[in-house]
Amino acid sequence: MKNDIRQQLKELIANRDLRGASIRKVGRMLEVDGKEVHPETVKYHWKKLFEDDEVSYLYDGSVQRAQSSALSDAILPSGNQLVSIPVLGVADCGPATKVADESDLGKITISTQLLDTKKYDTLYAIQASGESMNSTSIKGRPINDGDYVVVDRSKVSPRNGDCVVAIVDGLANIKRFYQEQDRIVLASESTENYDPIFVTFEDQSDSLIGGTVIQVIEKPKYL
Fold first, then answer.
1. Which CATH class is domain 71-217?
2. Do strands 123-129 and 81-92 pair parallel, antiparallel, or not at all (unpaired)?
């Protein structure tokens, strides 16, 4: 029954604009064993679909989008949409020199079909500077100088081996995250030799992790 409700709900969200619709009304559009679905059940399964990147917005009626109006009104001929992701600065892949001041460097606009998530509201992009992550692999792609790195700002509790944006002494770094028994290690993956950063748990601040890297948008070849 669970899968039946989620499949119905997923198809309904994909085919109808439910922004502003009441949960009770949505429940009436669904049917299990000849009965409408209770609003709390709708909320539960909608949230699960959103957490699994199966739908792009939640039941509160607001489209989930990046902080600076991510989801544009542009519709591609295929029916896909264009998403504008704010570029909030530059982060080092080598020795950190870029201040993490969230400066607005504009936006990158990309088809939703090219993104690996539907949670547009928590995304931002930064431009990579340096080559200390040119041997890494983010879903098969390295991070080279000038590439755009897509970051999920809601993922601030990374797992071992995740690629993160780390803020150390006010400077932004792109590194691999490893938690050891008594410290956090932020490591480079490069053809060059870069020393890792070591942070004790006592020195770890709430702002240490600025998000988890989920995707690399390669710099155009002609630039």
1. mainly beta
2. parallel
Could you tell me whether strands 171-179 and 183-187 are parallel, antiparallel, or unpaired per DSSP bridges?
antiparallel
Residue 105 near residue 87, CB atoms below 8 Å: yes
Give the 3-state secondary structure of residue 167. strand
> Structural domain boundaries of the chain?
2-51, 71-217
CA contacts within 13 A on the Cβ side of 134: 13
pLDDT tens-place string over residues 43-75: 888 888 887 888 877 766 433 333 333 444 455
Among 171, 142, 141, 165, residue whose Cα is nearest residue 153:
165
The CA-based angle 120-128-113, given to 5 degrees, is 35
Listed residue (27, 57, 210) closest to 121, CA to CA: 57
The residue type of 79 is G
pLDDT in tens, 102-149: 555 678 888 888 888 888 888 888 888 877 677 788 888 888 888 899
* Other C-beta atoms lying within 10 Å of the C-beta of residue 99: 14
Residues found in the chain: 223
